[in-house]
Design a protein that fits this description.
The longest helix is centred in the middle third of the chain and has 29 residues. By secondary structure, the chain is of the alpha+beta class. It is 51% helix and 11% strand. Strands 4-3-6-5 form a 4-stranded antiparallel β-sheet, sandwiched between helices. A 3-stranded antiparallel β-sheet has the order 2-1-10. The N terminus and C terminus are likely disordered. Among the domains are: 166 residues, no CATH class; 104 residues, Chitinase A, domain 3 (Roll). The chain is built from 17 helices and 10 strands. Helix 2 packs across helix 15 and helix 2 crosses helix 16. 30% of the residues are buried.
Length: 479
């Protein structure tokens, strides 16, 4: 979120994970998905998944299967019209790259600083920041929930203090850890091994890095509970070994500070304000990137600033370009983190507008080159799936041939014989261009059909209770 001059919308890849789509109106209650006039019924979807017992019968699985089927059917539809997939409209996919390009041109013009860093400066920072320092620590953990009642907190605190006094008094720390520590390191005497900065939760790390070998900390509280920490060793990578990478980091830091200063000067006077309910709306759009925003819904302002706004439609465009992993993180983020994302996207919009105002643009040659790369990636993936140049068999229509090939590819994926190639943002373009929907109201029906088609697990055969205690509780074997 803090990286400057990098558009959040620029993380578009053809081979990212699949997206979920909201429910659309269907006249057929037994239809799970529809793509360019083709339909995947509840029975067909269940028949695909049911033979593969290792695949759980869950709504999430049904959603993935449905979206992949839609994606592949739309690719097959586009390829049937043009085997080079030149008919797929990539305009919306190229936009973030164009924005990133003009912002980079602006950055090159406005950020001009001296990035020379001398060896003397580097060594001073190396010693001051303890760069490359690692600490080997042991700990004793007394688990306690952050919201534990005061009586519980007092009890755990007393025990921790008692054990700490024994450790400070000279008792073997490793033995105490084996007896009292309530985590997996207890078997190793609380040994956590070597760790650099950023490897431990903040309060623990702050305490550990202040200790010298042999020293024992006060009681340290983290979200996991109360810790007693003992540092065994400290080691630091020699300056000569990290000088070059350290120099580059120092240069990058100078540039980042200059970029942040420029952006601050450009945006601080605009009074960027996240609107009421915008955080909730942002989460809803991240959850359903396939939402169809039209009219007032799309023009609703999530963020306002002097001279403009970030609309729901613009935010949705950014969300569609995000890697699904980031969309998931956005759903789980705190309100403050979602607010930062909204503000960051707004600042990016301001940067793009400023770049365009100063006359920066993307050449048609650059756009054509990027478009060609995208289309070659898509075509290559489609060819690998057997969805290019589909030929009907005897007595088969082209429509039936396409459905056969897509079904065969889906079944190969479910058998583990093929890798899926989810389309990410390309999926949205194909669905808008050719039409595609997944009906989440049918998910439960598919799950029920899968369960009904799978044979019940074998019950244990009746017999005497085993006397071998090692076998107790294992019951019969699964088929």
């Amino acid at each position: 979120m803090k990286k400057t001059f990098v558009l959040l919308a620029a993380a578009i890849t053809l081979l990212s994970a699949c997206d979920s789509f909201g429910q659309a109106v269907s006249s057929h209650t037994d239809v799970l998905a529809r793509a360019a006039g083709h339909e995947l019924t509840v029975d067909q979807a269940a028949a695909m998944v049911a033979p593969h017992r290792e695949i759980p019968a869950q709504r999430e699985v049904v959603e993935v299967v449905a979206n992949l089927w839609v994606d592949y059917m739309l690719v097959a539809t586009a390829a049937a019209q043009d085997s080079t997939l030149g008919n797929v409209n990539l305009t919306s996919l190229l936009k973030p790259y164009g924005e990133q390009s003009v912002v980079w041109q602006l950055r090159t013009k406005v950020v001009q600083i001296d990035t020379v860093v001398t060896d003397a400066e580097l060594r001073q920072r190396y010693e001051q920041d303890q760069t490359g320092l690692q600490v080997r620590a042991r700990h004793i953990l007394f688990r306690m929930a952050p919201d534990a009642p005061q009586a519980v907190r007092d009890s755990v605190q007393r025990l921790a203090e008692q054990v700490r006094q024994r450790a400070v008094g000279g008792e073997d720390f490793a033995s105490l850890a084996r007896t009292y520590s309530q985590d997996g390191s207890a078997q190793q005497g609380g040994d956590l091994g070597f760790m650099g900065r950023g490897g431990w939760v903040a309060p623990f790390e702050e305490a550990a890095f202040k200790l010298q070998p042999g020293q024992i900390s006060d009681i340290v509280e983290t979200p996991f509970g109360l810790h007693i920490i003992k540092v065994e060793e400290r080691r630091q990578t020699p300056f000569e070994e990290i000088r070059d990478s350290f120099r580059q980091n120092a240069r990058d830091e100078k540039v980042a500070k200059a970029e942040e200063a420029y952006i601050k000067s450009l945006t601080d006077t605009l009074k960027i304000t996240v609107q009421e309910a915008a955080i909730e709306n942002a989460r809803e759009l991240a959850k359903m990137p396939g939402a169809d925003l039209r009219g007032r819904a799309g023009s609703r302002a999530l963020v306002r600033y002097q001279g403009g706004s970030l609309t729901a439609s613009e935010f949705l465009d950014v969300v569609r370009g995000m890697n699904p992993q980031y969309r998931g993180q956005l759903l789980a983020a705190s309100d403050d983190q979602v607010r930062q994302v909204l503000e960051g996207i707004t600042r990016n919009k301001v940067l793009v507008a400023e770049a365009e105002r100063q006359g920066f643009s993307v050449s048609s040659q650059e756009t054509d080159s990027l478009s060609q790369v995208m289309r070659l990636q898509l075509t290559g993936a489609a060819r690998g799936a057997g969805l290019i140049s589909i030929q009907p068999q005897d007595g088969e229509t082209m429509r039936q041939a396409m459905e056969r090939k897509v079904s065969a590819f889906m079944e190969a994926i479910l058998r583990g014989e093929q890798n899926a190639f989810p389309l990410g943002p390309v999926s949205f373009t194909l669905r808008e261009q050719f039409g595609g929907d997944v009906f989440d109201r049918s998910f439960d029906a598919v799950v029920a059909r899968i369960d009904a088609q799978r044979p019940a697990r074998a019950e244990p055969a009746p017999g005497p209770v085993p006397t071998d205690t090692g076998a107790a509780g294992r019951g019969g074997s699964d088929d």
